[in-house]
Amino acid sequence: MEMEETPLNHQAYIQNQTQNIKEEIKDKKGRLRPEFDQQWKRNFGVETEVVYVKVDPMAVNVESGGSNQQVQCEMPLEPSMFQRADAPTLSQLDISQILNNSDYEDDCSIDADKFREHETDGSSEDCQSEEDQDAEGMEERNHLWMGHTYMDNINHPGYKISEPRSQTSRTWYRTKFTPTKPNLQQPAYLPNICSSSKDAVEYFYEYFDDTLFDTIVKKTNDTALLKQTKPLNFTKVECKTFFGILITMSCINYPKIRMYWNRKWAIDIIAKAMARNRFSTLRQSLKLVFDNDVTEEMRAADHLWKVRPIINRVLEGCHRQERQQNIAIDEMIIPLKGTSPIKQYCPNKPNPTGIKIVVLANPNGMICDFVTYQGESNLAEEIVLFLTRTLVPGHVLYFNRYFTTVELAKELNQNGFKCVGAIKKSRLPKEVKSELISDKTLATKQGSHDVLVSSDGEMAITKWHDTKSSLYLSTIYAAESIGIRKRYDRKKRRTVPIPRPEVAREYRSNMSGVNLTERLLASCYSKTRMNKWTLRFIHHFIDLAVSNSWIKYKKEMQALQVSGHKIYQLWEFKRLIGEQLIESSLNNDSDGDGEESCVANKRVWRPLAPLPSKVKRTQGNAHMPEVGTVQRCRNRGCEMKTTISCVTCNMHLCLTRKRNCFKQFHTDGSC
Q1: CA 461 to chain centre
Q2: Domain that holds residue 50
Q3: Residue 590: pLDDT above 70?
Q4: Confidence of residue 611 (pLDDT cuts 50, 70, 90)
Q5: Is the pLDDT at 55 greater than 80, yes or no?
Q6: Could you give the CA distance from residue 41 to residue 152 in angstroms, rounded to a whole number?
Q7: Which of 372, 399, 588, 592 could be cross-linked to 403 through a Cys-Cys bond (beta carbons 3.0 to 4.6 Å apart)?
């Protein structure tokens, strides 16, 4: 309803406007249309809220004069107008304040129990269409709004104008995704030097050096001297022998440790290197830190303080390895069934129960960095940013749905890293959830996909349906390139090609690095039972160091163009490391008189020959020798005399060191 050019103090004009208000309220019947609220907010940027009130019958009086006007209206009370029984009843003063706009303020300062903003009926002539209302002419239009004009609201000191919503406020579009390609800065890391004369144990020394062995020896002796009256006399040579035995055991994996010293099943290189009781004593007494040196504050701050030296040393060796441009971040579980304050349960893992570590790994399985999860919550994004501390800009990071968020992708992009990750549906922006094609629609054709690109062109969200729908957030790949993946169709009973976007292909190929590492660790894993979680930690990091060493050894051998059958497999490489650690102690030619020479002078244990089984001993016992009188040997060709005869055959046969006619006679079957 457009206002007429009539002075506000004219009594006829006031009565005319009051009558129009009464007619509009009767038409609404007390129930305001919510859809017009949304239209009003779209057009004017004004936040409105529908409130139902009870109106008492009042009479209309107009007192003209000056700028302050008091208007009172009279309207009948209709039961159909009230939709809420708990609606507040407004007094005559409240209605007068509403109609004259005398106490209008912002929503945050208005008493909600009395009144709030009201909207006009959608059928009013004052309501323009969306096409006719733009932001440029907004200030020039007067709209009658429950007794006061839109211009009155603007001029009121307590009113704040909201910016009109733009028609181009979308942030995600279906368009071509063309991000900038990353450029890895060079030189990124230490050069990889190949050496054909390098022994297997030299690769292992990159993670376990003499400094770590000296620390283990010192802390173990100090702890044993504190708990026992008799010194342990643990040496560095004996420590290397102990670790060599641990590595060799993991290649054989007997169910019981005692079987390695069994007379029948003993392994010579283990049984001759160390006695069984000595090995058990060292295994129970092995320490990495001296407990009295660790304060209560340090223990509370770090749950892994008992194994912190070996973690730091292995981590230092991992940092020296070469990193590829594509690198993955994923979880890994250290299997543990004992008690630990940081033990986690992660389903869908080969070993779901244990201690969780997050690793940074190359696609070939080389672990370059890791961090142990100690029970913190909501640190997925912080862990990813922490693992990038040793990387240079230009890498492409791959991680699973546990880490992926839109905020993390923005942060990595600002730091110079590109990323690809599977993302949860709950972490998608609201606009993306509504814009993406539904799973039901994509399921009509296997291999279909949908892509949404952010307004700045830095991120893309791809939804691809294979056997089920998958969501990917990427700052480098989308679906610009479509590949083919073969799937077996049960209905057609044959393999059919399935279109696959580029982001899905790259994610699968580069995320397999951590899975490859887990398979390598499981192939030669130490399966001996242990009650201490510290021993499980030590065993795991020994296996991790051997796995990294073998990957580097294999890469260097391939660079030297060594044939594949001459390259050691993982279990052979691991067995070779254990043998070299043990033999280095057995062949120790120390010229000192201290602890290093006492191990070499120890008596070497030589196992006795095992007794045969009862079946083997009693097999063929029908022909037994017996000592009797002297007679000539009955074996063909022998003319010597003997006192040995066969109990069953009753034949005298020679049985001496030079002649064994007894065996020859029964073997030829002459009896």
Answers
A1: 20
A2: 11-155
A3: no
A4: low
A5: no
A6: 18
A7: 399
Is residue 444 in some structural domain? yes
Q: How many CB atoms lie within 10 A of CB 421?
A: 27
The reply to whether the predicted model has a pTM over 0.85 is no
- What is the rounded distance in angstroms from the CA atom of residue 420 to the CA atom of residue 538? 33
Give the range with max mean pLDDT: 69-78, 272-281, 577-586.
272-281
Question: Residue 234 in contact with residue 217, Cβ under 8 Å?
Answer: yes
pLDDT recorded at residue 616: 65
Kindly state the percentage of the chain with pLDDT values over 90.
Answer: 31
In a domain, 308, yes or no: no
pLDDT > 50? residue 581: yes
pLDDT tens digits along 141-189: 333 222 333 233 333 333 333 343 344 467 888 888 888 888 877 655 6
Shared domain for 621 and 658, answered yes or no, is yes
> Percentage helix, strand, coil, to 5, in the chain?
35, 15, 50
Cα-based distances in Å from 202 to 131, 197, 208, 550, 552: 77, 10, 10, 11, 11
| 580 and 490, same domain (yes or no) | no
* C-beta of residue 138 within 8 angstroms of C-beta of residue 153: no
- Note whether 144 and 290 are same-domain residues: no
Give the N- to C-terminal CA distance of the chain in Å, as an integer: 133
Pairing type for strands 418-422 and 469-474 reads: antiparallel
- Tell me: pLDDT of 101 over 90: no
Say which amino acid occupies 17: Q
Place of tokens 């004017």: 44
Mean pLDDT within 28-47: 45
Distance CA 385, CA 397 (A): 11
- Rounded (10°) angle between helices 276-285 and 210-227: 90
* Residue 225 maps to a domain: yes
> In this structure, what token pair is assigned to residue 356?
């969780």
